[in-house]
Write the structure tokens for this entry.
Amino acid sequence: MSDKRISDDMEQALNRQMNQEAQQAQAYLALGVWAESNNYGGIADFFYKHSEEERQHMFKFLEYINTRGGEAKIGAIAAPADNPSNLKECIEDVWQHELENSRKIYDLVDKAMAEKDWPTFNFLQWFVKEQIEEEALIDGLRDKFALASEDRVNNANFYSLDRDMQDASQEAELPREQKL
Ligand code: FEO
């Protein structure tokens, strides 16, 4: 690779976010397993797909760092958090994770602007847009969960919620649907 065209500091910051995306992929994978083992098949599919999306995000950072002459450094992934105690807690945890991730992306945008690193600023705009979509997706699920919970007698609502999550539009396919 030719000369490095990002600062050492930016290279470290991008590497941190790359590993953060890998951590997110791991967290969603664990939630998929939790949902599947609690018989929420649709919700499990949703989280498995989302785990794949986070892995794609990780790879975007990896490619960008290397393309700019830096070096992507693959770090350790911590164990995911403990399983949620119920679906409400699960969805709220995911919501907080996504808000936190948005803040991290905005910090990187601030940094790119402060360094006048316009290529990185431009690269990060894809993530700014992606976080708008991710927040809308998870916030929509919170709304659906609230609706489903209002009628505690009618378990069909939970069935519908599970189906909604299964059908929620995401870019990634389930790993088991991908052609190997
Ligand atoms: Fe890669 Fe859900 O943010």
Q: What stands out?
A: Residues 8-172 form a domain with the Ferritin fold (CATH 1.20.1260.10).
